[in-house]
Structure formats: C-alpha cells, structure tokens
Design goal:
The protein is mostly helical and 93 residues long. It has one helix at residues 2-92.
Length: 93
C-alpha cells in the first residue's frame, strides 16, 4: 500500500513540475508580448509628441502670418480707398 502511495505521490509531483514548467513558458511568452506592446506604445507616443510639436510650430507660424496680414491690411486698405475715391473723382469730373 505504501509503495503505491509513494508511486502516486511521485507521479503527482512530476505532474506539478511539468505544469509549473508549462506555466513558466506561458509567462515568458506573455512577458515577451507585453514588451512588444510596450515598445509599440513608446513608438506611438514619440510619434504623437513629434506631431504635437509640429502642430504647435505650424500654429505659431500661422499666427505670425495673420499678424502680418492684419498689419498689411491696415496699411493697404486706406490706400485702396483713397485710390478708389481719386478714380471716382477723375471719372465724374
């Protein structure tokens, strides 16, 4: 009876060992997948940061262009109005 129990215990211990080895292999695979996902997230995050920087740069340039356009309009518009009045005066004279 004890011999059968010993054999059964040894078999159970071997099964536990085999299952632990399988579990370690699966954990290793899961860790590798997590590393891949982390690397992908890191790359996407860097790309998003670069896009954000580029968008900010474009906004700054756009604001500069708008400021220049407003200044130009403040100068050009009165000149155009004066020229239209002068042309009207020439035509109606």
């Amino acid at each position: 009876m004890q011999q059968q129990d010993s054999v059964r215990i040894v078999e159970l211990l071997e099964q536990i060992r085999d299952n632990q080895a399988t579990q370690l292999a699966r954990q290793s695979e899961a860790l590798a997948m997590q590393k891949e996902q982390y690397e992908l997230v890191r790359v996407q995050s860097e790309r998003a940061a670069r896009l954000q920087d580029r968008a900010e740069e474009l906004q700054t340039r756009g604001m500069g262009i708008m400021k220049t356009a407003r200044r130009s309009l403040a100068i050009v518009l009165p000149i155009v109005i004066v020229l239209i009045i002068y042309l009207s005066w020439l035509l109606l004279r």
